[in-house]
Amino acid sequence: MPVMSDLLLPLPQSPEYARACAALGVDVRACQRQLQGQATLRWQTQSRRLGLLGRVDLISRGPVAENPMLLRSWLARWQNWHDGRPLLLNAAGMDAADLRKAGFWPLMTPASLALLPLSDAATMRAALHQKWRNRLNRAEAAGLTIRYRPLEAHHWVLKAETAQARARGYRALPPAFSLAFAQANPGKALVCEAKCKGAPVAAIVILRHGHMATWQIGHTKPEGRKTHAMNLLLWRAMTELSEQGHRMLDLGTVNTDDAPGIAHFKRGTGARIDRQSGSWLHLGALAPLARRLPARLAA
Asked: Residue 212 sits in which domain range?
């Protein structure tokens, strides 16, 4: 299916994501429609089984539209392109009132994402917060060696990420997904690694997809924290991605309650904070109730 070249597709809506899922045996279906002349809407749907609900379809961070105003049109018409099964929508750019009107029931409050525009190095450096820039300066003077290369299965950061997720109790796409992404999309899964005196001290994994890229994994060791290696790694990734033609780097969720340090680090890059629209479920029996749900209960 052709993809409009100007669309900024987040990772779950990208063809690269679909290829990685296919490699893992997960079916992802892409759909594209033109509305109001030539304006384009595109979305990807995957399916999973959820207890008594049976098969539930999932659209995460979609649809993606050339014109955000088209999202309201999609809400009014999506059932024409769907087979009637329950739909879980991790919505972006949609109004809660419109979602309720379309029969969607709220499940989770909106998350916030840090989205970093990529441009020339001078512009990006000027956008860094002062403390972030100072730490970058210190990292650049710390004698770190930086390597930027395709992700390989044996890289230590994958095992470190598994242990870190288990210890901190967070859920994210597992390292196996990053490896599947690398195998299905040669050259688009990259690891940026910092070494100090020959020993690795920090690494990040970046997934490239269309005009966007996603910071998928990040891990730093004590020596890496001491030398602010993560600042330098992310800066190198920013400049490399910009030179490769990417326009946006997705730094993931910003959670000031549970991870204030990481949230502060992401904000320091000059990223804009983009509040999503929450998680919503469309289920036939719930739809009439959702349409009458008071706004205060769907905030």
From this structure: 113-275
CA distances from 61 to 83, 88, 93, 100, 216 (A): 20, 11, 9, 18, 16
Identify whether residues 222 and 86 lie together within a single domain: no
9 near 32, Cβ under 8 Å?
Answer: no
- The answer to whether 188 and 11 have CB atoms below 8 angstroms apart is no
Mean pLDDT of 31-53: 83
Residue 247 scores a pLDDT above 90: yes
- CATH of residue 161: 3.40.630.30
Q: pLDDT tens-digit profile of 183-204?
A: 999 999 999 999 999 999 999 9
Q: Looking at the 3D structure of the chain, how many domains does it have?
A: 2
Confidence of residue 68 (pLDDT cuts 50, 70, 90): confident
